[in-house]
Amino acid sequence: MRLVVDLNRCQSYGQCVFAAPEVFRFRGEESLEYDHVPDETNREDVQRAVAACPVQAIRSDRVGEHAVAPARQGEGRS
Ligand code: SF4
After folding, report:
1. Which end of the chain is less enclosed by CB atoms within 10 A, N or C?
2. What digits encode the pLDDT tens for the residues 35-48?
3. What's the rounded Cα separation, in Å, for the pair 39 and 34?
4. How far apart are the CA of 66 and the centre of ligand 1, in A?
5. Ligand 1 centroid distance, CA of 15 (Å)
6. What's the pTM value of the predicted model, to 2 decimals?
7. 20 pocket-lining for ligand 1 (C-beta < 6 Å)
């Protein structure tokens, strides 16, 4: 899992720090630091952080994988 935070968009609300404290942290008052390649064991926390960010600044290449719509069953039935 790779993680990118758009620091131009980030407003230092800190929701990600609460959601995934092992991945996100503040250095000083407003400088956000984060693990660019967090451990897979933190995936659920990262998903919560992505969902919690009020400005959608956090992107992960694996987060949301489970949200892909399931294959439609019954499609093409006659
Ligand atoms: S929740 Fe979003 S805006 Fe807030 S610190 Fe984290 S990345 Fe920045």
Report:
1. C
2. 999 999 999 999 99
3. 12
4. 23
5. 6
6. 0.78
7. no
